[in-house]
Write a structure and sequence with these properties.
Layout (H helix, E strand, L loop, with lengths): L17 H24 L8 H9 L9 H14 L19 H13 L10 H17 L7 E5 L2 H16 L3 H4 L8 E6 L5 H8 L7 E4 L9 H13 L3 E8 L11 H11 L2 E5 L24 E5 L11 E5 L3 H7 L29 H35 L3 E2 L7 E5 L7 H11 L5 E5 L2 E7 L7 H15 L3
Parallel strand pairs: 2-3, 2-4, 4-5, 5-6
Antiparallel strand pairs: 1-7, 6-7, 8-9, 9-11, 10-11
Helix pairs in contact: 1-3, 4-12, 6-8, 6-11, 9-10, 12-14, 13-14
The structure holds pyridoxal-5'-phosphate.
Length: about 475
């Protein structure tokens, strides 16, 4: 190339003109709204012809550039046909929400600016916005003003962070020497109804999966605090080093809340880090009527809440909140000379698992500011009411409730004249009329129904109940 005095033009497919961008943005807005309406009228379940889909996918060899409008239309169609729909009002499933509109708008803003949240030097305003939201959540839980924390991509990352904090605080040489710094094998304690990601967390942190003690439940899906106390005492007598007790506030299976205050007292008496995994149930803090269910969370050293569950943000919006934050810097510190920093603030890259960091928290900031605690309180209470309505109708038709959750999860078994649970769930899902899960609660196979969609109506509740019943009849 000659030493010409201009650069090649920007690649237009990646960096189109403003007019093109606006046209495609508008098209996308319309097409997504249409898809959303079709989804609510259609099947909750995927209806994709996988053979045809794979063939089309294989056709993308990335040799010939393609027009973007048909590409976006194709992508929407594959999502419409090829995924279980969290945005369907009869998705009564795992804690995956239909995302609220403010969070989707905020996600778009975050994507457009793409700020780097690793450091407060690069992103002074975004880092402060996130810290402000975390402090508000901490305050709502009854934590002191000096509490802090950060956004995570997931509840799993937040729970992992609690274990790293616990290990770092328990043994000053853990950072340098790892678990061999401890005088004996370490142990962490959750109930047997805890989220299964805890076993991956034990693996990742290097303490090993055997370090995870799954404490018995009390017959009602909550950690048995006497069994917890005995397990910790027994381990200590045998030279094991207990480092973390993690109670669950809102178990995945039954929506039960461990006895938070008793677990706190046991943790304190043994000098062990106390974490509350409120990934889903933590949103109950927004409700004046329900927040008392989480009493005892204020005694924790740290807790987890996923905004991408009951706070209904888009995926990838977890939170780790800690009473004392100095240990975060001890656990995640690093020395660099290239990072822009602002000595007056805590830089996320020096206090968290991540380095490059998306502006995760804007979604909860905008949603919380738009709805207020009151709006979120109403959202949470509405979900509890949806489940109460489901429960009334199923009990009236001879079903039995197995759990007694104050949150929005119901575990039921069908009356004797209906078929096996396995068949009922399979038939229901293949009907596409609603989505529910099959799980175990206190040793018994149950159908698990959870309200996750903020717009489910009584007609949807009736349709669920009719569809469940029909799924139990001879097909
Ligand atoms: C969902 C959940 C997790 C895992 O969180 P992710 O965001 O899916 O990683 C952990 N604990 C509880 C109680 C949960 O509900």
């Amino acid at each position: 190339m000659s030493a010409s005095d201009d650069l090649p033009s920007p690649v237009p497919s990646l960096f189109p003109s403003r007019a093109t961008r606006e046209r495609v943005d508008d098209l996308l807005t319309r097409e997504l709204a249409n898809a959303n309406e079709r989804i609510a009228r259609g099947s909750v379940m995927p209806r994709l012809d996988m053979a045809k889909f794979r063939q089309e996918l294989a056709g993308f060899d990335f040799e010939t550039p393609q027009a973007v409008e048909p590409l976006l239309a194709w992508s929407i169609a594959q999502l419409e046909l090829g995924a279980v729909h969290m945005t369907h009002p009869r998705y009564f499933g795992l804690f995956n929400p239909a995302p609220g509109a403010p969070s989707q708008w905020a996600d778009r803003i975050a994507g457009a600016f793409n700020p780097q949240l690793a450091s407060s030097g690069s992103s002074p305003a975004p880092v402060e916005i996130e810290a402000h939201v975390i402090r508000a959540i901490a305050g709502r839980a009854g934590f002191p003003a000096e509490a802090g924390g950060h956004f995570t991509t997931s509840g799993s990352e937040a729970n992992y962070t609690s274990l790293i904090c616990a290990l770092t605080r328990a043994e000053p040489r853990f950072g340098a020497d790892g678990v061999r710094a401890f005088p004996g094998p370490v142990a962490l304690y959750t109930s047997r109804d805890c989220h299964p990601a805890w076993s991956k967390i034990a693996h990742q942190a290097g303490v090993g999966r055997c370090a995870l003690r799954l404490v018995a439940t009390d017959g009602n899906g909550r950690m048995d605090s006497r069994a917890l106390s005995e397990a910790v005492t027994r381990d200590r007598r045998q030279g094991v080093v207990p480092v973390l007790i993690a109670a669950t506030a809102g178990t995945t299976g039954g929506g039960m809340i461990d006895p938070l205050a008793s677990c706190a007292a046991i943790a304190r008496s043994h000098g062990v880090w106390y974490h509350v995994d409120a990934a889903w149930g933590g949103a109950a803090l927004a409700s004046d009527r329900l927040r008392g269910e989480l009493d005892g969370i204020e005694l924790a050293d740290s807790f987890t809440i996923d905004a991408h569950k009951w706070f209904a943000t888009t995926m990838g919006c977890g939170m780790f909140v800690a009473r004392h934050t100095a240990v975060l810097n001890e656990a995640f510190r690093v020395a660099t000379d290239f990072m822009p920093t602002n000595a007056s603030s805590l830089d996320p890259y020096l206090n968290t698992v991540q380095w490059s960091r998306r502006f995760l928290g804007l979604r909860l900031f905008v949603s919380l500011a738009a709805a207020g605690w009151k709006g979120y309180g109403a959202h949470v209470e509405r979900a509890v009411e949806v489940i109460a309505q489901v429960k009334n109708r199923l009990l009236a038709r001879g079903w039995s409730a197995m759990n007694d959750s104050s949150l929005a999860v119901l575990c039921v078994v069908p009356p004797a004249e209906l078929g096996e649970i396995r068949d009922i769930v399979r038939n229901l899902l293949s009907s596409g009329r609603a989505w529910v899960a099959r799980t175990n609660f206190e040793g018994r196979e149950v159908i698990r129904i959870c309200a996750t969609h903020g717009e489910t109506t009584l007609a949807d509740v009736d349709e669920l109940v009719n569809a469940l019943h029909a799924a139990g009849l001879p097909q």
